From TrEMBL:
Reactions accelerated catalytically: ATP + H2O + cellular proteinSide 1 = ADP + phosphate + cellular proteinSide 2
Keyword Transport assigned: yes
Organism: Rhizobium ruizarguesonis
Binding-site positions, ATP: 118, 136-140, 546
Subcellular localization(s) per the UniProt record: Cell membrane; Cytoplasm
Full protein name: Protein translocase subunit SecA
Subunit: Monomer and homodimer. Part of the essential Sec protein translocation apparatus which comprises SecA, SecYEG and auxiliary proteins SecDF-YajC and YidC.
UniProt-listed PANTHER family: CHLOROPLAST PROTEIN-TRANSPORTING ATPASE, SECA INNER MEMBRANE COMPONENT OF SEC PROTEIN SECRETION SYSTEM
Source taxonomy: Bacteria, Pseudomonadati, Pseudomonadota, Alphaproteobacteria, Hyphomicrobiales
Location of the SecA family profile domain: 34-636
One GO cellular component, as annotated: cytosol
Domain of life: Bacteria
Originating gene: secA
Keywords: ATP-binding, Cell inner membrane, Cell membrane, Cytoplasm, Membrane, Nucleotide-binding, Plasmid, Protein transport, Translocase, Translocation, Transport
Example of a GO biological process term: protein targeting
Function, in words: Part of the Sec protein translocase complex. Interacts with the SecYEG preprotein conducting channel. Has a central role in coupling the hydrolysis of ATP to the transfer of proteins into and across the cell membrane, serving both as a receptor for the preprotein-SecB complex and as an ATP-driven molecular motor driving the stepwise translocation of polypeptide chains across the membrane.
Length: 661
């Protein structure tokens, strides 16, 4: 196991690949079933220090030599490591030496030396594994090991995370280490001009978000249409013909380390990524208004069926008749019966399924989508099939033009194209089978460096939202007056601002962090760990947020986290709880939720008579949460599989037509 790493290509072959990426074979139905069954049976292993003891000993042997070197000799080591990789490849001995170099450099420049469990996790990432590391165990520093090692070996690396804030934070924090190693590091973030973006992708290690990366890949796909064959690109390179060569962003898909892999590869993989262009809208504002007016007059059950679980609305036969008979001076598409039916169904969705300050916010007369997983605004993103324009009309905004799809891809198909793929997360056990089945990522659990001191204070189930906010305010006062900081997690902008009003009315000083109030995010996160501070936040303060505590706060018991609404995935809840008790610090968490919360509303009629029986309160809350999240996760899994099927069909059709993506 320690003699040689298994990887899909030789380092020397990279120079022969003009746009390196993997073309995954298309599996049939039987192959997919067998792969799913095999992934379920595979043993999920836990990495132990004993198993990798010989590898760790090699690192320590090299580390001893490095610690005794002065700066002059130390500066020459990076070049020597590069030469060893070039001559003998990614052997365990060369990797151990590189890890020792990276660890010593990190210690000299940042004062941070990798723990043994981080060394183990780094080695597993180089093997293309999915490493589950508890929240607070230092995934940022861990990713430095395989990223710098691969870069020293001549392999371009993409470190993929869930938002621009984390990408910039990690790149800035680790840049001194990369610079000392002679490894260039780039940052790709939203709003960059093309030249800056291309320069970032030209670096050895690139920090970026999954969305920016995938959309840049699609832009390259569009640019390469008609010129994508390897022979054509190689011919251009050989004869130096640059007259018709497209200006690409990426150098290929070599090695990706996906941070928060469960969020990127699973939670956000339900819908395809689409690049489109705005067209002159043939519908017009008057038609959108007519569709909304008709939709407002329709009655649920009689005229349409609404599924909050699937987020779909369908007209009943009676509803279709009413819409078909509807007349309007709008003309245009409204005159076409089929188009009128589709527009009204979309109008019903805009009215009943998409809520302001939950699914979107309105800023300067524009509708901006809020990412349900990160809590952040997704600038320049829009819904399809007229839905975005109908929501704009609903909010009295000027409708934007409709859009034509130019290219699309799912995350499943995109990340499977990497020659080398690895991932990290604190919450992967439940979806390990799917990650193995879809991405061929083998799950391995990494032990913690120190014992976890996170205290679970249980859950309280309230009948109404108002009751929930009162209990939250009471707990905030109790905990903050003891000198401990409090972080309160909410699911939406609307909920965070509603709670802010309640806390303000009771004289409780606090800070709000959400998609509308995101200025100074870094400063808010820094202050969230100070004694007695109170922070109300959406998912923006979830994954990757590292709240530092002062020694005095640690003595008082550390950060206390209050969850105010369960998410559709329990993994997101655990990510919030993971903001406390990090790296051996103390901390505690609790849940204060309501029967009026979205996850519980489907079952309210069944459990409301029992909700006041206090001995069963916590038990009911646990059962309802587990059942609701299980049903939603199962539904999301079905959606993801359907998305992959549709994506595969589209790819097959385009290939038959002689096109790509």
């Amino acid at each position: 196991m320690l003699d040689e790493l298994v990887h899909p290509w030789k380092l020397s072959d990279l120079k022969m690949m003009p746009f390196p990426e993997r073309r995954a074979p298309t599996a049939g139905a039987i192959d997919s079933i067998l792969a799913r069954f095999q992934a379920t049976l595979k043993r999920r292993s836990t990495a132990t220090l004993a198993r990798l003891g010989p590898f760790l000993e090699r690192i320590e042997r090299h580390a001893t030599q490095l610690q005794d070197m002065d700066e002059t000799d130390y500066a020459l080591i990076s070049d020597e490591v590069r030469r060893q990789f070039l001559h003998t490849g990614l052997t365990a001995e060369n990797i151990a030496r590189s890890f020792a170099l990276v660890r010593e450099t990190s210690y000299r420049l940042l004062g941070m030396r990798h723990h043994p469990v981080q060394l183990v996790a780094g080695y597993m990432l180089l093997q293309g594994r999915l490493a589950e590391m508890n929240t607070g165990e230092g995934k940022t520093l861990t990713a430095l090991l395989p990223a710098a090692t691969a870069a020293l070996a001549g392999v371009p690396v993409h470190i993929v995370t869930v938002n621009d804030y984390l990408a910039k934070r990690d790149a800035d924090h680790l840049k001194p280490v990369y610079d000392r190693l002679g490894v260039s590091v780039g940052l790709v973030e939203h709003g960059q001009d093309p030249a800056t973006r291309r320069a970032a992708y030209a670096c050895d290690v690139v920090y970026c978000t999954n969305k920016e990366l995938a959309f840049d890949y699609l832009r390259d796909t569009i640019a390469l249409r008609g010129k994508r064959s390897k022979a054509r690109v190689l011919l251009d390179q050989t004869i130096g013909d640059i007259r018709d060569r497209p200006q690409l962003y990426l150098r290929g898909l070599h090695f990706a380390i996906v941070d928060e892999a469960d969020s990127v590869l699973v939670d956000e993989a339900r819908t395809p990524l689409i690049i489109s262009r705005e067209l002159e809208d043939p519908v017009g504002a008057e038609t959108y208004r007519a569709a909304l007016d008709v939709a407002k007059d329709l009655q649920a059950a009689d005229h349409y069926r609404l599924s909050t679980r699937d987020k779909t609305i369908h007209l009943t036969p009676l509803g279709r008749k009413i819409v078909a008979d509807a007349s309007s001076p709008a003309g245009g598409l409204w005159a076409a019966r089929r188009a009128r039916l589709e527009l009204v169904e979309q109008a019903l969705s805009a009215l009943h399924l998409f809520k302001r300050d939950v699914h979107y916010i309105v800023v300067d007369g524009k509708v901006q989508i809020v990412d349900e997983y990160t809590g952040r605004v997704m600038a320049d993103r829009s819904w399809e099939r007229g839905l975005h324009q109908l929501i704009e009309t609903k909010e009295d905004c000027k409708p934007s033009g409709r859009r034509e799809t130019l290219a699309q891809i799912t995350y499943q198909r995109f990340f499977r194209r990497y020659l080398w793929l690895a991932g990290m997360t604190g919450t992967a056990a439940e979806i390990a089978t799917e990650l193995d089945e879809v991405y061929d990522l083998k799950f391995i659990r990494i032990p913690t460096h120190r014992p976890v001191r996170r205290e679970d204070l249980g859950a309280r189930l309230c009948v109404t939202t108002g009751e929930k906010w009162r209990h939250v305010a009471r707990r905030v006062r109790e905990v903050s007056e003891s000198g401990r900081p409090v972080l309160i997690g909410t699911r939406s902008v609307e909920a965070s601002e509603a709670l802010s009003v309640v806390l303000g009315a009771q004289g409780l000083q606090h800070t709000v962090l959400n998609a509308r109030q995101d200025a100074g995010e870094a400063a808010i996160v820094t202050a969230a760990g100070s004694a007695g501070s109170v922070t109300v936040a959406t998912n923006m303060a979830g994954r990757g947020t590292d709240i530092k505590l002062s020694p005095d706060v640690v003595k008082r018991g550390g950060l206390h986290v209050i969850l105010t609404e369960y998410h559709e995935s329990g993994r997101i809840d655990r990510q919030l709880f993971g903001r406390c008790a990090r790296q051996g610090d103390p901390g505690s968490f609790e849940a204060i939720v309501s029967l009026e919360d979205e996850l519980f509303r489907r079952y309210e009629s069944h459990i409301l008579p029992f909700s006041t029986i206090r001995p069963f309160n916590a038990f009911l809350c646990h059962v309802m949460r587990r059942f609701g999240q299980y049903m939603m996760e199962r539904n999301h899994l079905w959606i993801r599989r359907q998305s992959v099927k549709q994506d595969t069909k589209l790819d097959t059709a385009l290939a038959f037509a002689g096109k790509t993506d």
